[in-house]
Specification:
The complex is a heterodimer of chains A (252) and B (179). Chain A is mostly helical and 252 residues long. Chain A is 65% helix and 4% strand. Chain A has one domain (11-248). Chain A starts with 16 loop residues before the first strand and ends with a helix. Chain B has one domain (24-170). Helix content of chain B is 88%, strand content 0%. Chain B has helices at residues 4-13, 26-159, 165-178. In chain B, helix 2 (26-159) crosses helix 3. Classes of the chains: A mainly alpha (252), B mainly alpha (179). Chains A and B meet through strand 3, strand 4, helix 1, helix 2 and helix 3 of A and helix 1 and helix 2 of B.
């Protein structure tokens, strides 16, 4: 962050092309976002692969982390979708870990927040959305559309209920993606604004005396953002599990 | 920072978009996300997750195995304990019966010995009594003879002639009857 010049809280979300790549007139440049995506993947792989390498009966720290992550996602998926849902375990696990690691890495100053890019969260939520539709129809056929017809609804308000169900189904990817995106975006902007406020006060002569106040606030916000980072990864994975459950058991 | 490049592009494009909504980077973002996620998916589903699953299975197997073994050993220990208790009870019972037998035997032996001794003593008592009686009788008969002799001597002394033996015997028997 350039001190002295005006501090722009939006600047942190800008992409920069580190290695420009253009194929067929399209821009596939390797950017800072690409780097942090691959960094997340590398760190997850380190924890999971190196952690499970020794196959110890009594786990060490790294293996404990790997097992904890495995169990956390497995329990979440199994409790929502039952045994049949476990075929999606690697997918849900990757989603959860990718979001969690991207979120946490982005809290380190001067890094980049991958999950504050709406295109990334939209791709993830659309993948879940189409996975639910394709798998749901492939597995249940026409039965899948029972999802829009809740049982035990009187016939005269059924059209209204079905309309609402359909609208809510198609708005899922929107809320699914925007929730994560907005949380990360807002958190990072808040952090940046409070951080900038500290600098502003320090440069303001007499006002430097109260500069510690926003600094303490920044620390508190950082703790909150750490919680949000985990919580949003959990919420995204949990909603994925619930949507997958609809594909597996559309009857209820 | 290296953000100048994009800023320039923005200015060239003639609009200053909010970076996350800037569509010019979408192809690159999508492409690299797909690459990163595909690598992650392959690494997790092929290597990491099966390995962790294997570790968990091995652990639960080991625990189940060891619990099983512990149960078996416990059963063995219980059986051994029961056998020990039984042996102890048997031994106690046997010891008691042996003691009882011994006691009875000794009691019987003592009783028989006492009977023998008593019989012996009685016999000897009877013999002694008989002897006493015999001796007494003999002594009594001797007394008669002495009395007769004494009487005869007295009579001879007094009369100066030998005494009539028959008369003395008669007097003796009369006197004896009176006394």
């Amino acid at each position: 962050m350039a001190s002295g010049t005006a501090i722009n809280p939006i600047e942190q979300f800008e992409l920069s092309r580190w290695v420009p790549i253009h194929v067929f007139g399209r821009d596939f440049s390797f950017t800072n976002a690409s780097f942090y995506m691959l960094l997340s993947v590398a760190l997850i792989s380190f924890v999971m692969i190196v952690g499970s390498r020794q196959r110890a009966l009594v786990p060490g720290r790294l293996q404990g982390m790997a097992e904890m992550a495995h169990d956390f996602v497995a329990d979440m998926l199994q409790s929502t979708t039952g045994k049949e849902g476990m075929r999606f375990f690697p997918f849900v696990f990757c989603l959860f870990m990718f979001i969690l690691f991207a979120n946490v890495i982005s809290l380190v100053p001067y890094t980049f927040s991958v999950t504050a890019q709406i295109i990334i969260t939209v791709i993830m939520s659309l993948t879940v959305f189409f996975l639910v539709i394709i798998f749901g129809i492939a597995k249940n056929g026409v039965h899948f559309f029972k999802l829009f017809v809740p049982p035990g609804v009187p016939i005269y308000i059924l059209p209204l209920v079905v309309a609402i169900e359909i609208i809510s189904f198609f708005s899922r990817p929107v809320s699914h993606s925007v929730r994560l995106f907005a949380n990360m975006l807002a958190g990072h902007i808040t952090l940046q604004v409070f951080g900038a406020f500290v600098l502003l006060l320090l440069g303001g002569g007499f006002w430097a005396a109260i500069a510690p106040l926003p600094f303490v606030m920044t620390l508190a916000m950082l703790a909150l953002e750490l919680l949000v980072a985990f919580l949003q990864a959990y919420v995204f994975a949990m909603l994925t599990c619930m949507y997958l459950n609809d594909a597996l058991h559309p009857g209820h | 920072m290296a953000t100048e490049t994009t800023s320039e592009v923005h200015h060239e494009g003639g609009h200053e978009a909010f970076p996350p909504f800037d569509a010019q980077h979408y192809p690159s973002q999508i492409f690299w996300f797909v690459v990163a996620f595909a690598i992650l998916y392959v690494l997790m589903s092929r290597i990491a997750l099966p390995r962790v699953g294997e570790i968990k299975k091995k652990r639960s197997d080991t625990i189940a195995n060891e619990l099983d073994q512990a149960q078996k050993l416990q059963a063995q220990a219980d059986a051994a304990g029961a056998a020990y208790e039984k042996t102890l009870a048997d031994a106690k019972a046997r010891a008691q019966s042996v003691a009882q037998d011994m006691h009875a035997k000794l009691a019987a032996e003592t009783a028989s010995k006492r009977h023998e001794l008593e019989a012996d003593l009685n016999q000897r008592l009877a013999a002694a009594e008989a002897q006493i009686k015999d001796t007494k009788e003999k002594a009594m008969s001797n007394v008669g003879t002495i009395a007769r002799d004494a009487a005869a001597a007295i009579v001879q002394h007094l009369t100066g002639r030998p005494a009539d033996v028959n008369a003395i015997a008669r007097a003796q028997s009369e006197g004896g009857g009176r006394s």
